[in-house]
Amino acid sequence: MAPIASLLPSDSPRIGGEDGEHVRELAELDASLPPIVVHRATMRVIDGMHRLRAAVLRGEELIAVRYFDGSDLDAFVLAVRLNSTHGLPLSPIDRASAAARIIRSHPHLSDRAIAETTGLAHKTVAAIRSRSAGEVPQPDTRVGLDGRVRPLNAAQGRLRARDLIASDPKAPLRQISRSAGVSVSTARDVRERLRRGQDPVPLRQRRAKKFPASPHRDPAAPEAGDRYTADSLADDAVAALETLRMDPSLRFTEAGRTVLRLLDVHVLGVEGWDRLVDGIPEHCSVAVADIARSCAESWREFARQLELPRTERPAAAE
To answer: What is the Cα–Cα distance from 100 to 138, expressed in whole angstroms?
Structure first.
């Protein structure tokens, strides 16, 4: 418990301040309210201003608190995260304003990490970051949702992995991943590319960064297996699925809902697949890969049938 008189107003992400009606509703509740969160160093409220105002209306002098130990900047990020997940929701303007502020104070956080904190779509965060690019120096790496540091220039990470593999061909993938600052799946892809005589940097990344081809690459090696193709298709599929979810002809039929549920499970962005690959133990990799290929064949046959004229599609079993 802390004396209410000792607390300072929050550095709130709510541009318009507290909602008076919500404060009165809380004050009229018979049940005790959850503890508020307070920044210990400044005694400033991080989360719970509505509850604090309600306690004042009730005439209370003490209030239950949980303390946060950290910087002022981290306290604001926590305030946004807590206000985005419970209580009175933040408005879209509040969320966008908070995202812009976090981009300025924590530019090393990835768009998806900031989106998770603010409740915005990661593409919205990317657009906000793009508008403030001239004001905020951008670091060479970003911290993702999983807490891992990844380089903005993926080509540099791949070249570091290439050099590590060249110096120690038998080094474990996880060791290469940590040292190069790339995912385990990327380290594995680089190793496979080197084994096949391909450039460790996919064609799309070389074009995007105007990166020269590796001098170690066999010019005759095909680029058809480039990882960038899978990455691009995965991102396109995520966007297409968002559109399909809004189509009533799918949402309001049993077959449509079933397909949407299946697609929702299988369609992941690039980072999502990387996290799954990293989480599979080595001794399970072959079995999981075999099952994944089997599922892929089933989906490929499903796609082939969908592309047939309806009159030529096989009849459903009775």
So the answer is: 13
Q: Is the pLDDT of residue 226 over 50?
A: no
Q: 232-284 pLDDT, tens per residue?
A: 445 556 667 777 887 888 888 888 889 888 888 777 655 566 677 777 888 88
Q: Where are the alpha helices (DSSP H) in the chain?
A: 20-27, 49-57, 72-85, 92-105, 111-118, 122-131, 154-167, 173-180, 184-196, 203-209, 227-245, 248-251, 254-266, 270-279, 285-306
pTM of the complete model beyond 0.85: no
Q: Supply the mean pLDDT for the chain.
A: 80
**Alpha helix locations (H) across 17-110?**
20-27, 49-57, 72-85, 92-105
Q: Residue 311: its pLDDT value, please? A: 75
Dist. CA 215–CA 75, nearest whole Å? 48
- Mind giving me the DSSP string for 83-145? HHHSSSPPPHHHHHHHHHHHHHH-TTB-HHHHHHHHT--HHHHHHHHHHTTTTSPPPSEEE-T
Beta bridge partners of 141: 151
Give the other-Cβ count within 10 Å of 146's Cβ.
15
Q: How many CA atoms lie within 13 A of 112 on its CB side?
A: 13
Which residue type is seen at 121? A
Cα(160)–Cα(182) distance, integer angstroms: 9
CB 137 within 8 A of CB 119: no
Contact 98, 90 (CB under 8 A): yes
